[in-house]
Amino acid sequence: MNPTGSPFAIAEIGALLGDPARANMMLALIAGRALTAGELAWCARVTAQTASGHLAKLTAAGLLAVQSQGRHRYYRLASPLVAQMLEGMQVVAAVQGPPRYRPKSRIDDALRAGRTCYDHLAGRLGVALADALIARGCVVLSNDGGEATESGMAFFRRLAIDTAPRKGRRRCFCRPCLDWSERRPHIAGQLGAALAERCFDLGWIQRVRDSRAVVVTTKGQSGFKREFGITGEALMPEADPPPVPLKTAV
Amino acid sequence: MNPTGSPFAIAEIGALLGDPARANMMLALIAGRALTAGELAWCARVTAQTASGHLAKLTAAGLLAVQSQGRHRYYRLASPLVAQMLEGMQVVAAVQGPPRYRPKSRIDDALRAGRTCYDHLAGRLGVALADALIARGCVVLSNDGGEATESGMAFFRRLAIDTAPRKGRRRCFCRPCLDWSERRPHIAGQLGAALAERCFDLGWIQRVRDSRAVVVTTKGQSGFKREFGITGEALMPEADPPPVPLKTAV
DNA sequence: GGATCGCTTCGGCCGCTGCCGAAGCGATGC
DNA sequence: GCATCGCTTCGGCAGCGGCCGAAGCGATCC
């Protein structure tokens, strides 16, 4: 049909994701948890009936999966492939896009500090974790892939991080994922997921209600320092010090 | 601003890619070569003035890069990240989408047989190559990454495939890339690019004019069989035998 | 069983945007 | 210097699609 031979499918997906309301819904779901239609309507800042139409389209296109439960309908991303696609778009948006002014918001700051990216950690915390593991020779990352070293595997086992091979072979179970806020890679893939899960289990980090943001707990402050040597602002919820110290308060 | 904290950037990219004309332009450029505005207009099946508007938008958004040369303007994808994003969208489109009826076309068949995917090989040929390398223990692929084995590195050196490490570290220079037509992984990343380049240099494959499709040459037929053990329909430009042999031609 | 709630469907409004014809502009060719 | 070519800009038209109010439908609560 068209000279490149490829179907119009990209245009369909693009059109779906091209509406701000739908894009916001998808972004809200990138955290990996299922949300109700009402919650997604709120996320997208539209009324319930408008959201309903959007969700129907996204579901029909196979981007979302839906499950009815009582009088609620829970929506989630249809597959990890969709999450990966969204990540890819976010990366391009962050890297290519003009460094546009974004009104600094508390929520944005919280996400930049630390967040989940589908099933692994991103933001300053995620990048710091990756940096620490690279510096210690536990993992090696490149543009095209990543792998855990032998010493890295031992390190992960010691921390009780699940490194059992899942259908894929040993070692190539880790991949770099470019961080849209830090513009540097963090660790995704099976290892990234296991790492994040273990941090939650240890009580080092906690999800922020209604958000993908995560905060480091007091226990996490010492844990990340002890095990990974991470200190300072990578663990802080807010990056910037107060801009002007109010020395002469009125 | 929005509750997920992420900017509206995904919506902007989606809206750009959501127009069939623009999507076709991007797909035409995924082959990696630069095309003129006129060629892209033809690909998108729109007039020159319409194409001009689209190209201006794509360039302003940082998805395309443009270079003037005489009275031509050459457009290409702004970065490999953009190509990777498009691949990701194609995969989702192919995998999630309903198995819609696509009018079988010669062009489509040619692309399914073999094509370049930005800088590496895809289609039946690309997948067969990946399968062969996996079967011979040259590479290992999983969902999250891939690596070349020691014996694989020796194999590649013997074929004069460039395996010199580029800024990334040794070995993790290969990644799986899900094939939209075969729905199975082929080899991308530095190794995938080097592999494809070597096949072109050896005269095993040739680009089809005005297309991402590649065809296996006679030399390639024997070469792929000798070095990779690939035979049969993976090397054929057309998958299907003629449906009904015209035994009683008029 | 009536009230409430969560979600969907319907209908009409309206704004955005893609489309092309015509014209303009710079580079090339003769 | 004039014709041609490749591309862009302008202007006006037309259609698609998102939005919300109102209404409908099923599940839940009391």
* Approximate shape of chain A: globular
Determine the number of helices of chain A (DSSP H or I, runs of at least 4 residues).
Answer: 10
- Mean pLDDT, all residues of chain A: 82
Largest interface: A-B, 85 and 85 residues
Order of helices and strands of chain A: HHEHHEEHHEEHEEHEEHEEH
Low-confidence stretches of chain A: 1-7, 239-250
Rg result of chain A: 20 Å
The percent range for helix content of chain A is 40-55%
Structural class, judged by helices and strands of chain A? alpha+beta
Beta fraction of the residues of chain A?
Answer: 15-25%
The span between the termini of chain A is: 71 Å
Give the tally of β-strands of chain A.
Answer: 11
| Sheet with most strands of chain A | 3 strands, antiparallel
Oligomer: homodimer
Overall structural domain count of chain A: 2
Neighbour order of strands in the largest sheet of chain A: 1-3-2
